[in-house]
Amino acid sequence: xxxxxxxxxxxxxxxxxxxxxxxxxxxxxxxxxxxxxxxxxxxxxxxxxxxxxxxxxxxxxxxxxxxxxxxxxxxxxxxxxxxxxxxxxxxxxxxxxxxxxxxxxxxxxxxxxxxxxxxxxxxxxxxxxxxxxxxxxxxxxxxxxxxxxxxxxxxxxxxxxxxxxxxxxxxxxxx
Length: 175
Description:
By secondary structure, the protein is of the alpha/beta class. The protein has two domains: about 1-55; about 60-175, no CATH class. It contains six helices and five strands, in the order αααββαβααββ. It has helices spanning about 1-15, 25-55, 60-70, 105-110, 120-125, 135-155; strands at about 75-80, 95, 115-120, 160-165, 170-175. It starts with a helix and ends with a strand. Mean pLDDT is about 75; it is low at about 150-170.
């Protein structure tokens, strides 16, 4: 495809060059030709720059993965929801859920989970359209409020840590 486009541009250049028109008209057509060529190259070039930035920048998912790897104890039981960072299953006991709110905070405690990882990729979509997703927002708000309440009421039985890693929320139960 690129070769065909290049051939087209070369053919257009020579057609303009060989036109039997005055010098002023040729300059106009060459100027128009170069402006159109530059315009056609601008879109792919800008997309390339955007992709290069995307692939060379460490994203929050990677930041979260590194933090989890370095700071959580091996063998911890971790619940993750969709769009969470990669968590090494040979180091941690990892269980994936579509949404953490599909179960109650008490259920996670009963199931002996040590850490819960919320991903803004999942819950953030609901907060971007609060009129449409009132129920989901209410569930997440209630869930997070319940977790804070557990920390406040049961500090001697269970400690609850709350850490925000850029786009990811890491909520931990420590027994």
